[in-house]
Amino acid sequence: MDKLFGRSEKCYIGYLDFSQKIIEDKNMNRIVNDIIYDLRDRKLLHWIDPVSIFKSYMTEKRDLFDALIPLVSLEIHLKNGLVL
Description:
mainly alpha, 63% helix
């Protein structure tokens, strides 16, 4: 399709770059922050500190996105009734 219209780059329709959105959008940042604190308060993951991972991601701009998203996903599933 790109060859037909002469486009040199791919168009990402409906694509959201969550790693950038969490940093740039204060509402998305607040949502992720609340979710991470809720996960910490459950005291299920005593061997890691999700809050420090989130803070390091935000302040140091370290590449912790791959660690952060599974934690957010876990808490969303737990809030939805997932039983461990």
